[in-house]
Amino acid sequence: MATWLCVTACSGRVEIAEDAIPGAGSSSGGGASGGGDTVQGAATGTGGGPAESPPPCSVAAPVLLTQAAPGLSAMTIAAGHVYYGNGVDGTISRVALTGGPPTLLVTDAYLVLGMSTDDLYLYWTIGGGGGPLMRVSLSGGAAEFLWNVSDGQPGDLVVDDGQIHLTITASTTVADGPRGLWRLSTDGTGAEQRYSGFVKRPVQLDETRAYFGDSTSQALVAVPQSGGAPTVIAPFTPQGDIQLDVDSIYWTMWEDEPQVWSASKASGSAQALATEDAGPLPGLAIVGSCIYWTSELHGTVRAMPKDGGAPVTVATDRPGVQRLATDGSSLVWLNAQTGALWRAEVLQ
What is the pLDDT of residues 96-145, one digit of tens each? Predict the structure, then answer.
């Protein structure tokens, strides 16, 4: 029976062995469980009684998928695997969601920033002026150069319906430069600038629009995927990830105050869902009726229902927790400082 983490006051504690803590032992993946020095657990019944049902937004005890080198900077989930990049040593690898030894795919992806996939390929961006857009088969092979802007610095990307949508966040040589939102085919052809402006790194798509932060207007905006005038969704600029569901958009920011926000995609009515005591809050994921985010300073994964409630800590790692991803039934997060990659089943 899975041990689940408590989102309310609990009488039990689950102690994690020292060699299961990232950076404290020599584990190399595939089944060490835990989420830090300790995680809060709940009693599962005594005296033969029935086990308690897990509270909303709870997760099972985290499992260490792999212990990589410090410097993890990007991650995505596809085809039953987690694909992750290390911006320091330039490697891109994959590991099965069920655990096991990792597979090295790429060895020269220094400063990897964004990752996305389609049914056949993993795509990624490289930071720095003129950083390229690249791809490799999901099963491995030779990496392919697709495209770059000579004086532009790429940010994040989303691949959807045969198209790559990516942000160019800075220009290294030209005052105006190629900053903005770009779209091109997955074979690297037909690049077009769909929006020109000082955009932030994160970008997300729904069926018709692209959503991102615009630094000039200090707003979260949406533009048609085919191009056109922006619509202001909220007068705030996301700094962490952006996520969507059918009706709403969610984002984090921490420049003035560390907060998790939501807004209606239709009306733009925005509200702060949670206020934290410290940022950054870089990772964000939606699973069912719950929203999850990471606290880099505290090394935690936090959660709350999307329709409101008290935020709770559902997993505890060490400082450095950043990117967060989901396959719809579990959460995966990386720790940039320790190089650990963790998975926890969602029990809601």
Answer: 999 999 999 999 999 999 999 999 999 999 987 778 999 999 999 999 99
The string of DSSP letters for 213-275 reads: EETTTTEEEEEETT----EEEES----S-EEE-SSEEEEEE-SSS-EEEEEETTT--EEEEEE
What is the DSSP code string of 143-154?
A: -EEEE--TTEEE
Measuring CA to CA, how many Å separate 178 from each of 17, 147, 182? 50, 13, 9
Sign of CA pseudo-dihedral 102, 103, 107, 111? negative
Q: How far apart, in whole angstroms, are the C-alpha atoms of residue 27 and residue 30?
A: 9
Closest CA relative to residue 124, chosen from 152, 159, 149 = 159
**What pTM, to 2 d.p., does this model score?**
0.84
Candidates 71, 99, 75; CA nearest to 339 is 71
| Separation between Cα atoms, residue 151 and residue 72, nearest integer Å | 25
β-bridge partners, 270: 263
